[in-house]
Amino acid sequence: MTQSFRLESGGFINRDKKISFKFNGKNYFGYEGDTLASALIANGVHLIGRSFKYHRPRGFFGAGVDEPYAIVQLYRNGETEPNIKATEQELFEGLKAKSVNCWPSVNFDVGAINNFLKIFLPAGFYYKTFMWPKSFWYKIYEPFIRRAAGLGTASTKHDKERYEHKYEYCDLLITGSGPSGLASAYSAAKNGAKVILAEDKSRFGGTLLTSEVNIGNQSGKEWADSIISELKEMPNVTVKNRSQVFGYYDHNMLVMSERISDHLPKTKKFHPKQRLWYIRAKEVLISSGSIERPIVFGNNDTPGVMLSSAAKEYLKVYGVLVGKKPLVFTNNDSGYETAIEFKKNGIDPIILDTRKEPQSEIIEEAKNMNINIKNSYVVVAAQGYKKVKSADVAKISDNKEELGSIENIECDCICVSGFWTPTIHLASQSGNKTKFNEDIDAFVPGISKQNEKTLGAANGIYTLEETLKDSFEKGNLLSKKITNNENKISFPNVVEKKSTVHDKFWCVPLPKGKNYKRFLDFQNDVAVSDIEIALKEGYRSIEHVKRYTTLGMATDQGKTSNLNGLQLVSKIENKVVPAVGHTTFRPPYSPVSIGAIVGREVGKHSKPTRKSPMHSWHEKNNAVFVDAGVWLRPRYYKRGEENLFEASKREARNVRTNVGVCDVTTLGKIDIKGPDAAELLNRVYTNAWLKLPVGKARYGVMLREDGIVMDDGTTTRISENHYHMTTTTAQAANVLSHLEYYLQLVWPELNVNVVSTTEQWAGAAIAGPKSREVLKKLFPKSDVSNEGLPFMGYMEADLFGVKAKIFRISFSGELAYEVNVESDNGYFMWEKIIEAGEEFGIQPYGTEALSTLRIEMGHVAGSELDGRTIPYDNSLEGLLSKKKDFIGKRSLSRKAFAAEDRQKIVGVVPLDKKTSIPEGSHLVKDSNAPLPNPKLGYISASCWSVEYDNPFSLAILKDGKNMIGEKLFVMSPLKNKVIPVEIVSSHYVDPKGERVRS
Amino acid sequence: MLHIKCPHCGMRSQNEFSYGGDATVKRPELGKEISDQDWDNFVYNRKSLRGKHWELWQHLSGCRQWIKVQRDTATHEIFKTLKANEEIS
Ligand SMILES: [Zn+2]
Fold first, then answer.
1. Which of A494, A640, A971, B43 has an alpha carbon within 20 to 30 A of A918's alpha carbon?
2. Which of A467, A495, A523 is a domain's end point?
3. What is the spatial distance between Cα A168 and Cα A282, in angstroms, rounded to a whole number?
4. Are A43 and A28 a contacting pair, CB within 8 Å?
5. Separation of alpha carbons A711 and A53, rounded Å
6. What distance in angstroms lies between residue B50's CA and the mean position of ligand 1's atoms?
């Protein structure tokens, strides 16, 4: 296929390298350096999609990030990605892309019927149309909208690509490599400042690539190239292309997405696809330029209507003609530059200028080239459906309200220029109070909140000489302040053609009897009439008008539509534009891929995995693991064909009858040292701690100031001023912060140090009636008898040459010990325990059996200490000292906490002794009561009691104290279960606690 | 992301810190009688101020010190940071 719209020469593409690609199933080719858009236009393809609401044909409107139309589904290396702008996507070998928003095809689209129904789809149509009847929503409306709309399809596959995050600090971050970015970067770099220069596009230079200017006897592009190559050589400068600074956050932190591999057929080995940079800059220079804005006229969304600057860019950068019979419709001199470029390449354009008698160097040049110029002329409407075929034009009166007789001009594209809108997004995001500049009919940055300054066109400065002067100076001043170094640069000689003032005209009136759609927002199909309706319906705030009509809410964030929308509202409301105000700019400036935001934190990298030193033993012995916070813990050890239920029952039963061993390394451990350690514990825990002897452990409960239980655990007095505290696995970090808070801020007079030692110790709980026998074999030289090591006793002992700490504490309710050794010896300890326990029938047990054991003993854990219960609720009121004050004590006397019928922990057994009770079920008196059935309590934990061989649960029950023996119902609407139950004591097994002391 | 100057470690990013609430709240002395109202004020009642505010942060992934930070809750501007034992002036 020939590229009928490609010029014989020109542009910055590499004509030696052909690249083949596919669009909507058809093969095409382009050149290295093309975008998908430039290659398609070169091939004469102008129909690229359908619009969001009316499914009107869509072509290309811009040539870059501002593109509202040309959004495609991209296929690359076996992956697919939606919401890709064809104007930004660089061409690579084998690229495949498809239209979105059309079904079954872009040429024949069922949804286009909306176009003929448009009278029924006015502003707020989603709110109005899809509201009634309500029952239609899920089955009819939502699927309809989903099928008809959308900007492509997200892949459902795991993304194999790698994305990275990078943190960077710099003196100056400069966003954009146009004239202002280059000049400021250059002078700052010469002063020795650490500079990052970020360019969104693949080519550096911005408007210098397309403008006919001369800097220091070089063309704009030559000058840009020379500055860039010099900057690249400087060690204090980072120059990045394909890198968009999309967000300006607090304290001068900006985020930039670098597209490293998107332009390649496939990501190189060990390379990321994209990299997200978090940049903390001392100073930010915003050199993001400006975006041409359209003039609004009838059918201005027809493919072939595009920005005049885009037409010029396709010509000058890619050597591509957007049309062969161009009509240029302009209110300023920029349109002339585009027309001149056409003319230079042998194409005869016609210029329609809304101005009556404009005069400038550029206009003079166009006249000298014999370009047909019609003054005081406007395009009334574009004609043609899938591509512009002609334009209805007319003379317009001096007051811009009356149209003359309509003439029809044949053309294949309409290049529009309605003057320039500074790109103030980053400045606005930073908190800058923007102001309206009457001269250019647009907002420009005003008073800075953070360390940011805006340069050049982004600041409303549209002449090259002024831009360069200002930018050299700002770059110099800001960097000099930081580096105390100044290297003056001689200002180059600048040659540019002078232009004259623009016409404030922005919207062509409708001719009598015609009702053309005149679009403001091209991606969301918001027309002038929609805004008019919204205002008629009473919407006033521009933020409300925006949301009701969806103006500027598409993925292009209204880059080409916002100002014209404001102009319209201000005209109807008879207010000046600044009084209407613009809507808030929010990051990201342009869509960022989720992959880049997530970075490496996917799968196993999403959080750290903590493993105990015995982990590999568990693996070798068929442990099935469970996540406990970030820890991996054995849930059960699978034997043969056992399931979870069978295995955990076996393990728990073995603890009750023989002996079991459980890895308790994950328990939080805090080392507490200092002369006031006991006093700290006494204030933190609810019970008394001042008299705990050395070598003894004690169980303690700590509260928050609001009286809610925060955590529980045992603390052991190792020596006079040294304590070893244990916390639950889940609360370990919070308890440490809690202690630090009180020590540093509330009671700094206490001489105590705390430090986490969770990782320093490996722990094994040896539990069961035969546990002492195992201990004797492990520590033959130590007296571990009931007298030598009584319940809650502690001793240090020698484990075959390894130092060990033995705590006689029990979570299972059986005679039990916890042995700690330094982590590096954990595996050794574990093997020795298994070896010594073999003759006593020792079995490892996992968290499931651990739960069973503690539940039937009525020991509370995380499911009861859930941030909603006080000590009384957990039958821990016996641990509340009456003699001393402690954290949270005063709260316990609050009325609700002291109520007579306060909730309390109870045991629950099904009457049939068979039916398992789902956790989270509700307890009610009458299972047939009318809804809402009064809820008396909830099931906090359930198990199969191995002691009695029937189901058993713990519950937090209203007036639990007086409910023992009552018959109630457990209801689980989720599982559709109603179970008659009896309330029993929460201490189901060994209520007197004899076993632990045996 | 805020940039907070830890008085012990220097400028660090917000993700190293955790927020700890109003720094001007004083815990009532242990063992002292206190009315329900005063206790409730200590535990629950906070002014959600717009503007300059002294608050606590802990340099969790750094020196683990609790610090006092004077921040504008509307603009996020940070004016001053103090060590735990330094009085708010
Ligand atoms: Zn610190």
1. A640
2. A495
3. 11
4. yes
5. 56
6. 27
Q: Which residues surround ligand 1, an ion (CB under 5 A)?
A: B 6, 8-9, 59, 62-63
Spatial distance between the Cα atoms of B66 and B44, rounded to a whole number of angstroms: 21
Q: Tell me which residue of A46, A53, A94, A104 sits closest to A70, measured CA to CA.
A: A46
The Cα–Cα gap between A708 and B74 comes to 32
Domains in chain A, number: 6
How far, in Å, from the CA of A631 to the mean position of ligand 1?
27
Measured in whole angstroms, how far is the alpha carbon of residue A976 from the centre of its chain?
38
DSSP E strands in A664-734: the ranges are 668-673, 697-703, 709-719, 722-727
The verdict on A601 touching B (C-beta cutoff 8 Å) is: no
- Amino acid identity of A414? I
**In A638-708, which ranges are E strands?**
660-663, 668-673, 697-703
What is chain A's mean pLDDT, rounded?
94
Provide block-wise average pLDDT over 10 residues at a time, chain A (998 residues).
87 97 96 98 92 83 93 93 95 95 64 58 59 60 59 84 96 98 98 98 97 96 98 98 97 98 96 98 98 96 97 98 98 98 97 97 97 98 96 97 96 98 96 94 95 97 97 97 94 95 96 93 88 89 87 84 89 88 87 94 90 98 95 97 97 98 97 98 98 97 98 97 96 97 98 97 98 98 97 97 97 96 98 98 98 96 95 97 97 93 97 96 96 95 97 98 97 94 96 91
CA–CA separation, A488 and A494 (whole Å): 18
Q: Does A745 contact B at CB distance below 8 Å? A: yes
Task: Determine how β-strand A195-198 pairs with β-strand A237-240.
Answer: parallel
Q: What is the CATH number of domain B1-23+50-84?
A: 3.30.2270.10
* A23 occurs within a structural domain: yes
Q: Which domain holds residue A787?
A: 663-845
Taking phi over 0 as left and psi of -120 to 50 as alpha, with beta for the rest, A735 belongs to: alpha
- What are the phi and psi torsion angles at A806 (to 5°)? -115, 125
Q: Where are the beta strands (DSSP E) in A515-587?
A: 519-521, 526-527
The HSE-up count of residue A340 (CA atoms within 13 Å, CB side) is 18
Q: Is the peptide bond before B7 cis (omega within 30 degrees of 0)?
A: no
* A790 cis-preceded (ω within 30 degrees of 0): no
- Verify that A309 and A217 share a domain, yes or no: no
CA distance A255 to A281: 11
Spatial neighbors of B41 by CB under 8 A, at least 6 apart, are: none
Phi, psi of A226 (to 5 degrees): -70, -40
Same domain, A224 and A121: no
| Length of chain B (residues) | 89
A625, part of any domain: no
Q: Are A129 and A122 in contact (CB under 8 A)?
A: no
Judge whether A804 and A821 are in contact, CB under 8 Å: yes
The 10 Å Cβ neighbour count of residue A130 is 14
Q: Closest Cα of chain A to B52: distance in Å? A: 16
Place of tokens 């104007």: A87
* Residue B10 alpha carbon to ligand 1 centre in Å: 7
Cβ contact A724:A718 at 8 Å: yes
Q: Which residues of B touch A (CB under 8 A)?
A: 1-3, 13, 18, 20, 27-28, 30-31, 34, 36, 39, 42-44, 56, 58, 60, 64-66, 75-76, 78, 84-85
ipTM entry: 0.98
- Find all residues with CB under 8 Å of A569, minimum gap 6, and list them: A531, A535, A542, A545, A575, A580
Domain range summary for chain B, segments of one domain joined by +: 1-23+50-84
Helix (H), strand (E) counts: chain A: 24, 50
Encode pLDDT of A695-710 as tens digits.
999 999 999 999 999 9
Residues of A in contact with B84 (CB under 8 A): 744-745, 748
**Quick one: which of A333, A337, A91 has its CA closest to A220?**
A337
Q: Is residue A95 part of a domain?
A: yes
